[in-house]
Amino acid sequence: MDPFTELRKHAGGAHPQKAKLNVVLAAICDVIYERRANGDRQAPISPTEYFAALMTALDAASDSHRQEIAQLLSMVLPEVPEAVLRGKFAAVAKCLTTVLQEAGDDAALLRSASACLALALLAQEPSATAWARPELLRSFQLLLTLAMDSRPKVRKAGHKWTMDILELHAAKGCDALSTHIASFAENVFASSKKDGKDDQRLVLLVAFLKLALPLLQRKVVASLVAALAKFLDANSKTLRLVTYEALDALSAAPESQLTADALRKLVIAVLDAQSSGSLEAQGGPVAIYAVRIPSQALVRLATVNAEAARELLPRVVSAVCSHIATDNDRIQRQATRSLLTVLKATLTPEVLETEGTFEDVARVLASLQSLTSLRFQGAWSHVFPLIGELFRFYGPVSRPALEPILVTCCELHEAADQLPQQQQGGKSAQTLSQLFALAAGAAVEALGPRAFLEIVPIDHPTEIVSEQRAWLLPVFRDALRVTQRGCELGFFADVVLPMARACEAGAREASVTPLQAKKLQTRAIQLWTLFPSVCARAVDIDTHFKKIAKVLASAMADKRYPELRLAVCQGLQALVKRTRALQKSVARRYQRETEDAEVEDAEEAEEDDNEEQLDETKLARDRAALAKYSGRYLPLLLSFVEELDPEKDTERAQVLLDTLEGFASLAEAELISTTFKKVMQKLLEATTEAKRVEAEGAGSNSKRATKLRQISHAQMALALALLAHVDDANVALLYRVIKPYLLDDADAPMQKRSYAALVAICDSHPKFLSEESQLQDLTRAICESLLTCSVPAKKMRLRVLAHLIRALQAQPATDGLAEKELVPNLVGEIMLCTKEANGKAREAAFELLVAMAMLLRARDPQNGLMEFIQMVLGGLAARTPHMRSAAVICLSRLVFEFGREDPSIAQAMPLLLKTVLMLLHEKAREVIKSVIGFMKLGIAVLPKDQLEQFLPDIINGLLVWIGESKNRFRAKTRIILIKLCRKFGYEHVAALVPEEDRALIRHIKKTKEREDKKKSELAAEAAERRAAKKNRDAFEEFMADSDDEGDDDEAAAMQVLKRKKDLHKKHKGGKVIREDEDDIMDFLDDNAAVKNIFSSQRGGHDDDESDDELQMSKDGRLIIPGGEDDDMDGGSDSDDEDKIKQDVASQLQRMGLNNNGKHDKGGRAKRKRDDDGSSGREYRAKKAGGDIKKKGKLEPYAYIPLDPKLMAKRNKREAVTRYGGSVGKRRGKK
């Protein structure tokens, strides 16, 4: 492969540096051809030939061409075989060393030559034997010298190549260069110690070591760390900063070779530097590193020497905590994060549990305790989340170690209103309370509610529940829902219930005031709201539920506290759901065991099994404990639901019904059957009585009828809740009961629930539709109820129809029930449902439409689908536009679904398109919208030869609507015309278009040509970018680092290109920065914004046209350029845009497409005056820029009149046009 393929593309190009490289390359190639024995120019030049010729040329070249030759050599060296470079290294190194020594100030030559030398070194064998040769070490020494060069580009190149060599040696396990780098660094340290002033050389060395230290061997790293530690308290801020950066990179790099002793010394050195006070008040630029380095080092030390890490832990924690007191939010965040990492790595829960009283652990805990003092108030937003994480990490062993912190946290919450506010960044009392509550909630999760209350009790001798600790009740409620430890119903029975009873008893005492009684009742309700949270993670259902079951029933029935009913029901639901979830987990595990399922990820399987320890025996006991009281809870819940109106009290009724359904799943089948029959009996009695009362028609009986309907609704809701757990006989009973309601739309809610019951039957009892007699009966009932279906029941009816169609598909064809009754009777209904406002209902209707088509095709593969399409086509003859539009939409969906796979539809498509096109001349817009959609489908489906015969009808029909004013189809019809033009050609379509409308086709053609041209240009640019990116390492990297002249030329070329692009862009009103190549812009200057930032609308002027250099005429008057006036007028671009808009408007007027023009009786367009007399245009000078004074008139002025006509919606465009000129221009001048 030719290494110069990319370079040759730029031969003769505009870039001078690349052109010069091509000239030199051509000369080198000529030399190679001449050296060949037979002068062969056909055989490609090998990399070795290039290498030999370039080395010869570099050795003998003059100074003017060395840089190009060296750059070409650096491009070919990666392709040269390693054996050649190893054998010729001495000569290569000698030549390149000479070039580097003679380069002087030529930075480009230094970079190219250093790249060649480094590539030659990379080709050498990475072994201690090979790198013991003096010429290799001298060459590497030369690269080290370049890595410390004062010129940034040269230094960057030196860093890159030395790091590449070190990375190669580290990967191969060769440590030959580590000692050499260490001796080089020691020499620099020694020389700087003698001089005492050479801080710049030290800074450059440390910056190099920042990259090199992670790649060096252990012994060298230890010695260099000891040497760098001396500069942690250096007087030079720059030296101190780069030293911290180097040590931070070393401690963070996982591949760095740090011994335990080196890590220990590193931690001590950083801590000593902080204690010496040389850092800038702990908030300086090195504070982040001062926090991070000892933390990272200590974490690594803990993995190799836990005892040494424990010894340093108190000092590290204390030092990190001291940084949390700063005002810098970034330092606070880093310090708390580092503190959490250190404690998790060194102070594990096992250590805290067994050695919590040791001196070093006590010192750590004391430092953590100090974080809750007022000194750290500014950092509490980071401190208390840290405390919460520590509680979650240590879990139950947090006690007694973290008890003082928890107590302090609660005390701070109680005194939040009295805490002093900091002058800067102070938190409100509410914010602080949330932080304290966050930490307390984490403690509840970690310790459990019982242990928490032993540390922070909430009871009070006189108040029952302490007013100061009442804030803990919401904390308990939220924390117990998410705790991983599990909760105990025994805690609720032993602790919470006695307090709730005491509050309720206290509220009934005669000596209590009404206000106190209300407060005690509220407190009792708050305590009861803990019940759902406790039940969500209950672990002792089998042992403690029986202790509170009767109390729960009494609480639900207590009319003094109606809120308790919902709280208890939510808790009972949580208990039932928990047993169900555990039962499903057991079932999944049993299925895996029985099927011998192979688990690919062993860790994932173990995690799934250990998510919660499942005990099938205990699960059975839990379910039995709940089922034991189902006989008591079911009648109670039934009575509660009967008291409500499910249509009004929806939320409360749903909670009760969910609880009822849960306990029905646990109850015995006999109990459920008996209860369900009673519900059916009450339902029939209520509906029968309601009909009798309505038949009497007495006005006094209206309330009675309403009450009876409410009872019937409640009984139907109860039946739905029990339905999933009843037997087939009761399902048949329910079907017989609800069947009459399908034909009765007098009670819409009841009819909706009847359809919902049918859906529930189909979902939970699949056998119901498997019987042929039952299926036929339901089909006839659905067909008969077509005209009596109310609007609220349509969605459920569609779901029933979907079940019915699926059941018919599963049944073999018998008496043609589907073909004769169901589909013909329901197809119209389904078509209308596709026009519903509800999106889900529309999608369900479309799915049902396709299912019906598939059913008929399965019954009759030859003609079934076409018969169904004939049914849909019948909708085109409907009287209402709504139905005709629905028919076209359904036809489009059927063609879309089956058009490509069913040949019968493909054959009928021309006739279908011809039929639908007849609707194009209707006036109903919804029909036109549907026809346009079908037209697009026909263009895509029909082949070109079959579609051609419909072109006149399509085009003439579209042109009727494309010129219609204020219609919504202009864009849609335009898209169809574009598709036709692409398929048949612009000339063919234009021939079918009337003469007055052919301008539209020409416009479409021109627009398409512009788009294609733009796409091709973008594709070419993208290809160039990909090619440049692909070859960047081989070529562009060196081109980017070419000499200054080349950079300037490239920058100039880019600047010219940018100016060309800017000519085609509209000026924006944003702000830009005025730059000066000869001056450095100081962004820290307070006046930088005033001096250097200006509006982009004033752009385009050079610096020599500034406001300070105005010319003067001979009589001494200032000559003000007209550019400002041009800008005030909107600029030339704005004038051009106005002209273009006028041309487009006139063109559209000739085509008959202009909607905005108003015409008089004679057909001539009325011209609107551009000047309304208020914009100040009459004062504009005609022969110069600026304004003029008119004799006998006021000073030049402009104002915006308040015209009420412009507030009308139809005049919106005119208002924007009138005001945009003044408002926009003035805004741009600010």
From TrEMBL:
Top-level taxon: Eukaryota
Database matches in SUPFAM superfamilies: ARM repeat
InterPro entries membership: ARM-like (IPR011989), ARM-type_fold (IPR016024), HEAT_RRP12 (IPR012978), HEAT_RRP12_N (IPR057860), RRP12 (IPR052087)
Domain RRP12 HEAT, residue spans: 327-638
Gene3D superfamilies: Leucine-rich Repeat Variant
Biased composition (Polar residues): 1144-1156
Record-annotated membrane-spanning stretches: none
Regions annotated as coiled coil: 1006-1033
Biased composition (Acidic residues): 595-614, 1123-1137
Region (Disordered), start-end ranges: 593-617, 1094-1194, 1211-1230
A GO term from the CC aspect: nucleus
Protein name: Uncharacterized protein
Species of origin: Phytophthora nicotianae (Potato buckeye rot agent)
